[in-house]
Specification:
Layout lengths: L2 H12 L16 E8 L25 E5 H4 L11 E6 L2 E11 L7 E4 H7 L6 E8 L2
Parallel strand pairs: 1-5, 2-4
Antiparallel strand pairs: 1-6, 2-5, 3-4, 3-6
Length: 136
């Protein structure tokens, strides 16, 4: 396990999250896409698309992701809410939790909070190519 992956796992554990093998409907595939970040993307039940649920009992304080609409699905309820994915970017790998939908991006794209983006790329890049899969 890389240092970045270990830090991500510790951060998720500290937030009261367990990295279950819950894959929503994403399966075991590795997806290719782009990651972007939003400066003020903060976890707030009133601002994220995912409702509190069995798979997402609490919102982590950081290291969150919005999943593209195609993979998230229609409406505000998605089987992918709460799924923890491992994202690989130019600086390495890091785990984030899906808590929101990202409108506009294409299949494979994620919107990350700034803290998560900084783990996989330089925030000055703004948009980077990534691959990701459900965390094991």
């Amino acid at each position: 396990m890389s240092a970045a992956t270990a830090v991500g796992a510790v951060a998720l554990a500290a937030a009261g999250l367990v990295a279950p093998p819950y894959a929503g409907n994403l399966g075991t595939a590795t997806y290719q896409g782009k990651a972007t970040f939003t400066e003020d993307y903060k976890p707030d039940w009133d601002k994220v698309a995912c409702p509190k649920s069995e798979n997402l009992k609490t919102l982590p304080k950081e290291f969150i992701a919005g999943l593209n609409r195609e993979q998230f699905g229609k409406g505000d309820k998605s089987p992918n809410c709460g799924v923890i994915v491992e994202v690989t970017g130019p600086k390495g790998k890091f785990k984030v939790q899906i808590v929101d939908v990202a409108e506009g991006p294409k299949k494979g794209d994620l919107n990350l909070d700034k803290a998560a983006f900084a783990k996989i790329a330089d925030v000055n890049d703004g948009i980077v190519k990534i691959s990701w899969a459900v965390a094991k």
